[in-house]
Design a protein that fits this description.
Order of helices and strands: HEEEHEHEHEHEH
Low-confidence stretches: none
Radius of gyration: 16 Å
Number of domains: 2
Oligomer: single chain
Number of strands: 7
Length: about 170
């Protein structure tokens, strides 16, 4: 299995990538997700943990109805948290921030493509302000694609250096 190979190579964690939602909502009902995938997801997360690895689930889209289930399946974190799908990072932090590490939420349709430096800094500052306190948040782009600007990625990292510590410099 792939997880075993990664563990043998010293990889400390894995990301399970399989989009579960559109911007408008889940691909299939949360009940069908539970029925069809719970056992498999629990087996994957149990294997990762037995190998000493952390495992994060990636799904683009409006994943609110799946967040509790991701935690129940044993994932350690959730990635994308796509603002263009209407995901409010503060709401996610309240819902599940004590059970899953939140990863992502930096927009790849504008902020990391054609935003101004000030807009990039503001997006980073706001994400850290909303989800960073008490830990459990890793700031990251929601995804990757060819239009992402290297300059804006550098600005994102500069903003993390400026705002990534508590108390937050406003």
């Amino acid at each position: 299995m792939m997880l075993e190979a990664w563990a043998d190579a010293g990889v400390p964690g894995a990301i399970y990538t399989d989009d579960q939602a559109f911007r408008s909502g889940t691909l299939i009902s949360p009940e069908i997700h539970r029925e069809l995938y719970t056992e498999s997801f629990q087996r994957i997360t149990r294997t990762a943990h037995e190998l000493g690895m952390k495992i994060v689930v990636h799904s683009c889209g409006r994943v609110y109805p799946l967040l509790e289930w991701f935690a129940e399946c044993g994932f350690d974190g959730v990635h994308a948290l796509e603002p263009t799908a209407g995901i409010d990072l503060g709401k996610v932090k309240e819902m599940i921030g004590d059970r899953l590490c939140l990863v992502g939420n930096i927009d790849i349709t504008h902020i990391l493509v054609d935003a101004t430096r000030d807009e990039v800094f503001e997006a980073v500052r706001e994400s850290i302000k909303v989800a960073g306190e008490s830990g459990g948040y890793i700031l990251a782009p929601t995804n990757s694609h060819e239009d992402i600007s290297v300059e804006r990625l550098k600005w994102m990292l500069e903003a993390v250096e400026e705002y990534g510590y508590y108390p937050l410099k406003v």
